[in-house]
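User:
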Amino acid sequence: MSARTARPIVVFDGDCALCNGFVAWLIRHDPDGHVLIAGSAGPVGEAALTAMGLPIAIAQSTLVLATAQGPRLRADAVIGIGRELAWPWRAVTALRAVPRALRDWGYDQVAKHRPKQPAEDPACGIPPADLVTAWRARLATADDVAALAEGSLDHA
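Assistant: Predicted structure:
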């Protein structure tokens, strides 16, 4: 798989109810599967973080979008995910006009108050019953991480 076909991977905290809800929303609004998912507590999530040069612990408090161009964190991750979606969700990319410090402050305020919800398997999160099959089909693999890492080396 080349960098051109490598799909971005959302690395999220599987024990975070807000993160799990966001991933469920993403799966519903990205029916073509432009973005993959990986819980930060599993080997694929950890590999994605390591491939992006990030500490494993970062995903306990920060949404990460691993891309062939490198990692996107916090509000930039949300913007990067929006870039992969169809209209009207792509409109979130307009947040780029807001200074990063301000948009990350807003992101941090939401993250501070996010509810924790212990997952049976935080490596995968907690899929809603109606999304179990789609959720599992979107889980990134080690090959997906390798493709992204290959792409990020091409852009280094």
